[in-house]
Amino acid sequence: MQLLDNPIQPYAWGSHTAIPELLGVEPSGKPQAELWMGAHPAAPSRIRGTSTSLLELIAADPAGELGAACLAEFGPSLPFLMKVLAAGDPLSLQAHPDPVQAKDGYERENADGIPLDAPHRNYKDPSAKPEMICALTPIEALMGFRPPAETLAVADALGVAALDPLLAVLREQPDGEGLRAVFTLLMTAPADQQRAVVAAVLDACRVRQDELETARLVVRLAERYPGDPGVVAAILLDHVHLAPGEAAYLPPGNLHAYLEGVGVELLANSDNVLRGGLTTKHVDLPELLRVLDFTPGSTRILTVDADGDFDTPAPQFRLARLEVAGGTEITLAPEGPQILLCVEGNVVARSELGKVGLTRGHSAYAGAREGVVSLAGEGTVFRATSGLR
Fold first, then answer.
1. Nearest-angstrom CA–CA distance, 77 and 80
2. What is the C-alpha separation between 320 and 328, in angstroms, rounded?
3. Cα(321)–Cα(344) distance, rounded to whole angstroms?
4. Cβ contacts of residue 165 below 8 Å, gap of 6+?
């Protein structure tokens, strides 16, 4: 068992206090958006008390650290990345590719000679990026496209004439293809037309914000991203609220944006992001439209099963939320590499090769060679493993 020291990503949308509070340290005065636990080449965790990264540890003995099944399926790298995500401001509207799209895009951009660190690069690696998040605090997010009837009801309540051409398309075809057509028309319109539509919608939302949740959301987004067409696109999306302990699974192609809150995020070990608005970063609309899934209501809201697991279809990862209490030891079946994160209490994690103490904000890694892991004490621990069964 190895305690981890984990890098923090200082993205501008991050909370100034949530991650320091979890770690029990003083805030830096700057946004701290994501705490990364894993072996991503851009920012790997380090083994506490050493200069060795988790990436280097696994590379030195892939078979022993990953186990035969994980190594055969994913190659010599950890297939998942665990994060604590702390949103103080809305993230960009974004989606992630499926395996074929990621491989094709990565190879295409390599052939075009686009450097991996270029700001207009879409594909940093050849991997898909399904993800899930479990709320530690209430989380507010946009996740996937809402049923067209709900979008039409909200738009009708706002009564914005500038939306009529878009609404006509959706009334004629109230399904995923209608949503694709509306989103495409909105996001590819000339800039002056986009600004006019955003301004008209914003005026109506300011009038109705005391009555309509979507109107309040539009006003908030417009204040943060004035003139951005993503402000209007938000009307097309499911406005989701996760209570602490609830989770959501976002498959490839799901258009989403976390708006506020803190959660444990688990995703495939990839950094491929295609943005669609609410951002000053690179937006590649043709590529985004190629990967988006417009199926209404495609986001899955999850709760734990009797074993503490969240059921997701992703082969790269599985997340469990484990309550350790009452002097009872929890035994975890060996399932390849795993990362344990304590978010409350004081827990001892023991493997066949050693043990570590975990308190709030502390995390540990156990490779496949460590066999059965057990937890004892009092607290809440999140466990990340591969999704292989």
1. 9
2. 17
3. 11
4. 185
Residue type, 88: G
272-308: per-residue pLDDT in tens?
999 999 998 899 999 999 999 999 987 888 988 888 9
The count of other CB atoms within 10 Å of the CB of residue 112 is: 8
8, 19 contact by CB (below 8 A)? yes
Global pTM reads 0.94
Distance (Å, whole) CA 246 – CA 303: 5
Q: Could you read off the pLDDT of 70-98 as tens digits, one per residue?
A: 999 999 999 999 999 999 999 999 999 99
List all residues 6 or more positions away from 269 whose beta carbon is below 8 Å from its beta carbon.
Answer: 38, 39, 40, 77, 78, 79, 80, 81, 127, 316
**Strand segments (E) across the chain:** 2-5, 8-9, 34-37, 46-47, 80-87, 93-95, 131-135, 139-145, 237-242, 247-250, 256-268, 274-277, 300-302, 309-310, 318-324, 330-332, 338-350, 355-359, 363-366, 373-385
Residues 6+ apart with CB under 8 A from 18: 32, 84, 86, 88, 137, 262
> Catalytic one among 146, 275, 300, 318?
275
In the residue annotation, 275 being an active-site residue is answered as yes
